[in-house]
Amino acid sequence: MASRTPVSIIEPDGTTPGYDHGLSSGELLRIYSSMVLTRAFDDVCIKLQRSGRIGFSIPNKGIEATQVGCASALSPDDWFFPSYRDFGMPLYHGVEPVEMMNNMFGNAQDSARGRQMPVHFSFVDPIRLVSISSPIGTQIPQAVGAARAFQMRGEDHLCLASFGDGGTSSSGFHSALNFAGVWKAPVIFLCQNNGYAISCPTSSQTASESFGIKGEAYGIPGVIVDGNDVFAVRQAVEQAATRARAGLGPTLIECVTFRMGGHSTSDDPSRYVPKELMEYWAGRDPIMIYESVLFREGHLDEARKTQIAAEAEARVDAAAKQAAATDPPSLETIFSDVYEDIPQHIRTQGEAAFDLVARKGGAAGGGGEFPL
Amino acid sequence: MASRTPVSIIEPDGTTPGYDHGLSSGELLRIYSSMVLTRAFDDVCIKLQRSGRIGFSIPNKGIEATQVGCASALSPDDWFFPSYRDFGMPLYHGVEPVEMMNNMFGNAQDSARGRQMPVHFSFVDPIRLVSISSPIGTQIPQAVGAARAFQMRGEDHLCLASFGDGGTSSSGFHSALNFAGVWKAPVIFLCQNNGYAISCPTSSQTASESFGIKGEAYGIPGVIVDGNDVFAVRQAVEQAATRARAGLGPTLIECVTFRMGGHSTSDDPSRYVPKELMEYWAGRDPIMIYESVLFREGHLDEARKTQIAAEAEARVDAAAKQAAATDPPSLETIFSDVYEDIPQHIRTQGEAAFDLVARKGGAAGGGGEFPL
Amino acid sequence: MALLTLLQAINDGLRNALQDDPSVLVFGQDVGPKGGVFLATENLTSEFGEARCFDTPLSEDGIIGAAIGMAMNGLKPVAEIQFQDFIFPAFDQIVSEAAKLRYRSGGQYTAPMVIRTPYGGGIRGGLYHSQSGEAYFCHTPGLKVVVPSTPHDAKGLLMASIADPDPVLFLEPKALYRSLKGEVPSGSYSVDLSTLRTAREGGDVTVFCYGAMVPVALKAADQAAEKGIEVCVVDLRTLLPLDEEGVLDAAKRTGRVVILHEAPRFCGYGAELSALIAENAIEYIEAPIKRVTGFDTPFPNTLEHHYLPDERRVLDAIETTHAF
Amino acid sequence: MALLTLLQAINDGLRNALQDDPSVLVFGQDVGPKGGVFLATENLTSEFGEARCFDTPLSEDGIIGAAIGMAMNGLKPVAEIQFQDFIFPAFDQIVSEAAKLRYRSGGQYTAPMVIRTPYGGGIRGGLYHSQSGEAYFCHTPGLKVVVPSTPHDAKGLLMASIADPDPVLFLEPKALYRSLKGEVPSGSYSVDLSTLRTAREGGDVTVFCYGAMVPVALKAADQAAEKGIEVCVVDLRTLLPLDEEGVLDAAKRTGRVVILHEAPRFCGYGAELSALIAENAIEYIEAPIKRVTGFDTPFPNTLEHHYLPDERRVLDAIETTHAF
Ligand SMILES: Cc1ncc(C[n+]2csc(CCOP(=O)(O)OP(=O)(O)O)c2C)c(N)n1
Ligand SMILES: Cc1ncc(C[n+]2csc(CCOP(=O)(O)OP(=O)(O)O)c2C)c(N)n1
Ligand SMILES: [Mg+2]
Ligand SMILES: [Mg+2]
Question: Is B47 helix (H, G, I), strand (E, B) or coil?
């Protein structure tokens, strides 16, 4: 059964009693830089939205340890079925900020060709980060199916399905965990319990004593960890990955963390999040917690810290500039990729649209504010 | 947490150590007669199907204790959201066999006006037995909603949602238990684990150690009982009902039992049920188990037993005769009850149909065999 | 009468319903303290308490499943689905259960309930916050489907839907939530279901539309009028059961028909309108029955203004139809 | 060539696909040892092993969700949904996911998969074992929808669907499973998607139909011929993407059209056919475009033979259309 209190590793003084991270300085700093880069990316996106340059973003602050800790325990050959809030996963694995910015701007270079809203990334290289879908829960059983493919071919890879506390209420969560249990599929279910589903606190989501315990219903081990402790997350994911690769089946990991901002740029959390809760979690900043280790072990000092922050900011700024300067997608992109080949009826509709533009000019650029 | 071995009460010698049923002879025999009547109803339906008089039935044998034990612990003011296999519930509460037979024949007297397949009952009197739906799992959240209505009005009633082992895999199971947990709704979830979902054994359904344990995922107590022991079922349902009426919320009860026949009259279980399993459960006949108590306590003797069986058979036979002699529903029934008032477009379609019959005669009576 | 946005009119309609009838309940994701992501349920929790207006878990299946049970047992649920795009996990509950309960129980059980949900484009919501799924539901006997296009109708149709004995899917054109204001009576009133509204008279071409496409049609009609073409704009308001007689009359009067909706063309709602006319009034029709619709592709994000029918496209269709 | 039932042809098609391509998997409820409730997958588990043909938990959402993931990652899932009526819990996965994955990922991820499911009436299955839900799916860009009506086409279309790079909903007319036999080549072959078949030539009236309604149309056509009316019967075979040119040609050739399906009329698939013709070939049309369909009610049980279109109704429509 899942332990009832979240496992944490990093003590306030930066020690990690009983835990040997076994990581080189370079590896430790890669994790750190990814967390910092994630925060910078988040920051810049929120500013871009505030200044009207992009339509929407999803605050990520406070959850960097969960995302990067998890990503760092997986291999680039594993498949990620992420949530829209998982900026840290692609960034850790070397996706360039500009590729993500292209999506934030929905421009012609966006891998999704400007068809999806911002924060709906899709990558195949350097990692398989499966095109993010908006409907909550749908991608969890897909991760199980993809994992079954690895299993059938006798491959050593696994799938990560990442979702929020709210996501556990979805049908997809239920069918995914149930199928994975029966199939002993190599999949890790990462539940990011960040306290809220938009404005709904966990108490309105479920009466279960934790999210980790939900594994019991499917014969799947459940683990609960401190999601602001990058080592705790990393360790849990590593152990789950070892289990999965050994053919022992899936694991459910609950990361207890907190969304240090609105649900999205359209949301005002002060309407519903008690101030004290915000303050409590502000004192548990995952980057600060991790810094205490790095400082203590001598991998980081103030100068290097400032440098890493500045580099991150510069990379993200440059990415934003480049993405902003890139053209929007061409009209043709509306009509392609519906099927492998464009069927006649869609071709006809496209030609009529081009013809109308030629005869009467293009459509007026739309406004419209996103509410959530 | 749910106990891992099913609770049973009745010993092989008919004693019930530590359990005081507190029931009068009349009450005990009402339970018994209902079980016998249920089996007779099942028997006759299967024969009617074999002889081509009705299209379909659902074998019920072996599950009488679960259904009648449960029904006997509830009041006629509670609402039943049953499964298609729950013949024992309406029969215990005084629904006349002929009313059920009208449904088996789909005749003009059928409360569902011949619109549904056999075994899809609907009653409002003497109990609320909510019109059975074929899709598995859909009615479970409905029971929670109806229970919430009782809760809002401060009424003392509860809802029973009854479903099979297969039903636990459905989306409805997940959302229902989750909502009920959060709402502390007065609802009892009765999972009839009869070993199979059509041909799929429980091992292909879930990897969880039991069905009762699934309550953990929703903060709902789970109870596992011997479903062939009418007192064990009755006790569990009584306790759950007391909890629910006291505002303490829902309970999940797993009744471990066995389907002593095919999934339906269209199914051949010898294709997939191991013989030994069938034999094991044949030795655990719920009616026999209960008889051991009644004989021991002197409520039943051979003569009375024969008489009860004969009466049950006679009632069911008479019901079948009456139902068979009743006309099919009129053509009008196709077009009514879609909405409270018949909208113009449906009225027009109906008139055209009547007109065509007048001009060219009726449609040829259909054949068609039901496969499952 | 107050001048309200469509969103305010809906909020007002919900408030009136909650006041009038203690069995009315409002619930869904974020509809409680937050007041809904669009603020349609703003202040209802504080005014009526958590028992009457509350949040649910993130499960559309659960929301609608529970609503059906409530409706059976004497409550009047008004459930919100945050975006119509997210209604599909509840598709089974709506199509197999709510819509069929009365029929399959011979009227013993019924599910009088309302499902409110914002639909359509105009907020740069991409594939999953922009869809117009009405056709998926209008093929379902037992369901009613309503789409308002003005603040007045939004409140009146909503209150009529809440009073209706059958399940109603109430589709709210999110593009119009705040973009137009109109006079809205205070207090309770209803606008009859299944009666269309002639939004503009005109003898040359008839445009059938609903929801967010009504203002688009009206603008195109104004532009057409400048070119001497008089356009009749019909706002259907209730898509199922449809005011078929009204549709046929309006089609016959001009003999030239343009059908307008945001959803993809193929098997869209417009197909039914066209087929209805081709089956019952083809003798009156003097030009091809044109459809101006979203493309048969998913809904794009950056280029949504090209995807959504606009005056340009509607006017072009009106002119072609008129010149035929 | 063997004389097979439609059901045997499907079983044979699955067997060929499993033999040809090791990435093909067959799964669903009861498809393993039992061989499916209709026996479409009979013996496949014993022939190919449990890894290739197996049972799943009772969750359509899980079946289709997992199939999508398999398809993304190199397998070729052929999932069975036991009855089309039970597909709705998977509606979200089909409509929001399988159909949109290629588009939303710019082609980086795709879901080439087949969902097989029996549809339609004729087995006294009542509300929930008789429905024809094709219109719910045909409004979904990104999906293909196929319906065979002969054993030959059933195998060929199924094999083409399995080879197709896009997700295909393969609707099997359960009424025809065992009711007719036909020549079926052994070994692998495919019948092109999106090409209709002219099942019978005739110059007076064109009947469009598919699946289980094809034999009904052919019988009605025979009866019409006795009265001197020559009917062209078009079996659409693929409903999405539709062979629109073929439809328009067939409509133009006679100028008189009857559309036939089991599903309810309102917003049914027939509406699209009618609208397509009314938009692109109205000049050729000489009579109202008639639809013969199921009624706009749920599917009844005892009276299903009155609900389902039969020769009587089709012939009546042919005569009316011809006489107009
Ligand atoms: C099926 C579905 N219903 C509703 C929504 C609207 N919605 C978007 S995000 C969200 C909350 C998700 O909460 P959680 O799973 O906890 O993830 P978090 O945003 O906290 O990371 C909701 C309700 C949706 N996207 N999909
Ligand atoms: C959503 C759905 N999927 C599939 C079916 C077909 N089906 C009918 S009964 C059944 C098995 C149900 O098993 P279980 O829940 O264990 O109940 P039991 O029949 O054993 O009482 C299945 C798969 C259905 N009715 N509904
Ligand atoms: Mg959350
Ligand atoms: Mg069972």
Answer: helix
Which of B116, B337, B370 is the best residue to mutate to test the D interface, defined by the most D CB atoms within 10 Å of its own CB?
Answer: B116
ipTM of the shown complex = 0.98
Q: Which residues contact A321 (CB under 8 A, 6 or more apart)?
A: none
Does A178 contact chain B (CB < 8 Å)?
yes
pLDDT under 50: residue ranges of chain D: none
The predicted pLDDT at position B1 comes to 46
Instruction: Please tell me the distance from the alpha carbon of residue D61 to that of residue B155, in angstroms, as a whole number.
Output: 36
Contacts of C263 in chain D (CB under 8 A): 139
Output the pLDDT for position C155: 98
What is the per-residue pLDDT for A351? 96
Q: CA C118, CA C178: separation in Å to the nearest integer? A: 13
In eight-state DSSP terms, residue B7 is B
Average pLDDT over residues A212-235: 98
pLDDT value at residue D291: 98
Answer whether residue C273 shows pLDDT above 50: yes
Helix (H) or strand (E) holding B309: helix B302-325
Please confirm, yes or no, whether B21 is among the known catalytic residues. no
* DSSP classification of residue A109: T
Q: Is B189 on the interface with C (CB under 8 A)?
A: no
> Closest by alpha carbon to C227, among C150, C318, C136?
C318
**Which residues 6+ apart lie within 8 Å of D226 measured at CB?**
none
- Chain D, 179 to 198: residues with Cβ < 8 Å from chain B are none
Is residue B366 over pLDDT 80? no
Q: How far apart are CA B142 and CA B130, in angstroms?
A: 10
Strands of D197-200's sheet, edge to edge?
A: D197-200, D231-235, D205-209, D257-264, D290-294
Q: What is the mean pLDDT of chain A?
A: 96
Mean local confidence (pLDDT), C64-70 = 98
DSSP three-state, residue D119: strand
- For chain B, domain boundaries: 25-325, 330-372
pLDDT at A326 over 50: yes
Name the neighbours of A, counting chains with at least 3 Cβ pairs within 8 A: B, C, D
Return the CATH architecture of domain A25-325.
3-Layer(aba) Sandwich (3.40)
Token representation of residue B295: 């004989």
Q: How far is D125 from chain C (nearest CA, A)?
A: 13
CA distance A333 to C300: 9
Our answer to whether residue B259 is catalytic in this structure is: yes
Of B112, B144, B153, the CB nearest to C69: B144
Determine the average pLDDT of the residues in B9-20: 97
Amino acid sitting at position D63: I
The pLDDT tens digits of the residues spanning B234-271 come to 999 999 999 999 999 999 999 999 999 999 999 999 98
Which residues lie below 8 Å from residue B328, measured CB to CB, with a gap of 6+?
B106, B107, B108, B114, D302, D303
Average predicted confidence (pLDDT) for chain C: 98
Nearest atom of ligand 1 to the alpha carbon of A83: 21
Buried b (16+ CB within 10 A) or exposed e, C221-258: bebbeeeebebbbbbbbbbbbbbbebbbebbbebbbbb
Has residue A151 got a pLDDT over 90? yes
* Euclidean distance between the first and the last CA atom of chain C, given in angstroms as a whole number: 45
What stretches of A246-343 show up as alpha helix (H) in DSSP?
A: 275-282, 286-297, 302-325
Q: What is the pLDDT of residue A229?
A: 98
Q: CB of A165 closer than 6 A to ligand 1?
A: yes
The verdict on whether A315 is a catalytic residue reads no
The two structure tokens encoding residue B150: 């009782």
**Cis before residue B186, ω within 30 degrees of 0?**
no
Q: Which domains does chain D have, with CATH numbers?
A: 2-184 (3.40.50.970), 197-323 (3.40.50.920)
Which chain C residue shows the shortest CA-CA distance from D85? Answer: C96
